[in-house]
């Protein structure tokens, strides 16, 4: 399955994340977020059990990226929160993160949900990505990430 409005590298496939992917996601979390309580495999499995939308980006069957969104409520008051997006450092800069984000936003858009997320204040690349996809900074959460104590911006994209 390919996201319709996303230009993916030809070797990348987006599909639903599976419980069997939880260990690979947790391994990537250790690499991507080592100082901020990276999620373990059980956390990913619990998100899937809860029915949240999680996507996997694969190259030749190998998971190279993942992302998840939770939606609460129903239109017209539905809200969504991007829980996580991660891409293997060896595959960053190829549009995979943007493709994952757009896939998650499409799930929120089906319910006309306003979308929120938190991003580290020092993560300029991620913040820029989110801004180009319609997010604006609406708040600051001091010491949001643990145990590093890094601050986070809260960002919002209006319902579509």
Description:
By secondary structure, this protein is of the alpha+beta class. The chain has one domain: Gcn5-related N-acetyltransferase (GNAT) (Aminopeptidase), CATH 3.40.630. Helix content is 27%, strand content 32%. It contains 4 helices and 7 strands; from the N terminus they run βααβββαβαββ. Strands 1-2-3-4-5-7-6 form a 7-stranded mixed sheet, sandwiched between helices. A hairpin with a 6-residue loop joins β3 and β4. The radius of gyration is 15 Å and the shape is globular.
Supply database-style keywords.
160 residues; alpha+beta; Aminopeptidase; 4 helices; 27% helix; globular; ribosomal protein; YpeA/RimI_acetyltransf
What secondary-structure arrangement, pairings included, does this model have?
Elements: E1 12-16, H1 22-32, H2 41-49, E2 53-59, E3 62-72, E4 79-87, H3 96-109, E5 114-120, H4 124-132, E6 136-141, E7 152-157
Helix pairs in contact: 1-2
Largest sheet: 7 strands, mixed
- CATH class equals Alpha Beta
What letter string, H or E per element, gives the SSE order? EHHEEEHEHEE
Order of strands in the sheet with the most strands? 1-2-3-4-5-7-6
Shape: globular
How many structural domains? Answer: 1
Beta content: 25-35%
Low-confidence stretches: 1-5
The helix tally amounts to 4
At the fold tier of CATH, the topology name is Aminopeptidase
Count of DSSP strands: 7
Name of the CATH homologous superfamily? Gcn5-related N-acetyltransferase (GNAT)
Average pLDDT for all residues: 93
The CATH level-2 architecture is identified as 3-Layer(aba) Sandwich
Gap from first CA to last CA: 23 Å
User: Can you give the helix content as a percent range?
Assistant: 25-40%
Structural class: alpha+beta
Cα-atom radius of gyration:
15 Å
């Amino acid at each position: 399955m390919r996201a319709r409005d996303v230009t993916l590298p030809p070797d990348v496939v987006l599909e639903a994340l599976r419980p069997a992917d939880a260990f690979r996601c947790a391994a990537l979390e250790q690499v991507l977020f080592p100082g901020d309580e990276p999620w373990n495999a059980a956390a990913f499995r619990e998100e899937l059990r809860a029915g949240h939308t999680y996507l996997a980006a694969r190259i030749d069957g190998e998971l190279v990226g993942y992302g998840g969104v939770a939606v609460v409520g129903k239109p017209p008051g539905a809200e969504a929160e991007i829980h996580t997006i991660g891409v293997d450092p060896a595959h960053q800069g190829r549009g995979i993160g943007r493709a994952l984000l757009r896939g998650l936003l499409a799930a929120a858009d089906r319910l006309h949900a306003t979308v929120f997320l938190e991003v580290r204040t020092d993560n300029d690349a991620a913040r820029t990505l989110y801004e180009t996809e319609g997010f604006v900074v609406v708040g600051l959460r001091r010491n949001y990430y643990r145990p590093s104590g890094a601050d986070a911006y809260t960002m919002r994209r209006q319902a579509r």
